[in-house]
């Protein structure tokens, strides 16, 4: 239970900012890194953090918000396999079968080993369902 509260409290400013309830000026200044948007003063989080935030939105049915976070993760790291998996889930829920299929296949391609790809049974089932 405590872990959920810690996660909730750590994501709350991001959610509020994404919903437009707080502005970028109320956020503490962050060091600038590659890929920053100097106009808005926004620093992109890591690919893993973007996927974590995207999952938060996906669980709440906010598909567009989730989609943008997974795309942001891929801008940060184009080889981050979990972002492709989650992107496939969003596209599938949005009814974008072709895009979902492409994302799932890319997920399997980006996994670190062939063994991992073979063991991704849920993704293989999703691909089979989408190819029907």
Briefly characterize the structure:
The chain is mainly α.
Question: How is the secondary structure organized here?
Answer:
Elements: H1 2-18, H2 47-59, H3 63-76, H4 81-94, H5 97-110, H6 114-119, H7 121-131
What does this structure look like?
With 132 residues, the protein is mainly α. It has helices spanning 2-18, 47-59, 63-76, 81-94, 97-110, 114-119, 121-131. The chain folds into 2 domains: 1-43, no CATH class; 45-132, Alpha Horseshoe (Serine Threonine Protein Phosphatase 5, Tetratricopeptide repeat). The radius of gyration is 16 Å and the shape is globular.
- Mean pLDDT reading: 81
Can you give the helix content as a percent range? 55-70%
CATH homologous superfamily title of the largest domain: Tetratricopeptide repeat domain
Order of helices and strands: HHHHHHH
Annotation, overall tally of beta strands: 0
Radius of gyration: 16 Å
Give the count of structural domains: 2
CATH structural architecture of the largest domain: Alpha Horseshoe
Estimate the global geometry from the Cα principal axes.
Answer: globular
CATH topology of the largest domain: Serine Threonine Protein Phosphatase 5, Tetratricopeptide repeat
Q: How many DSSP H or I helices?
A: 7
Assembly type of the chains comes to single chain
Which CATH class of the largest domain applies here?
A: Mainly Alpha
Low-pLDDT stretches: none
Strand content: under 5%
Span from first to last CA?
A: 41 Å
Largest sheet composition: none
The secondary structure category is mainly alpha
């Amino acid at each position: 239970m405590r872990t959920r509260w810690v996660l909730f409290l750590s994501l709350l400013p991001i959610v509020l900012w994404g919903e437009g309830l707080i502005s970028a000026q109320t956020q503490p200044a962050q060091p600038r890194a590659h890929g920053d948007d100097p106009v808005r003063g926004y620093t992109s989080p890591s690919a893993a953090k973007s996927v974590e935030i995207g999952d938060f939105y996906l669980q709440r049915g906010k598909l567009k918000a989730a989609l943008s976070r997974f795309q942001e993760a891929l801008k940060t790291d184009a080889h981050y396999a979990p972002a492709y998996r989650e992107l496939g889930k969003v596209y599938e829920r949005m009814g974008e079968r072709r895009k979902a299929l492409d994302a799932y296949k890319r997920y399997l391609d980006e996994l670190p080993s062939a063994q991992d790809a073979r063991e991704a049974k849920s993704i293989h089932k999703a691909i089979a369902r989408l190819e029907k």
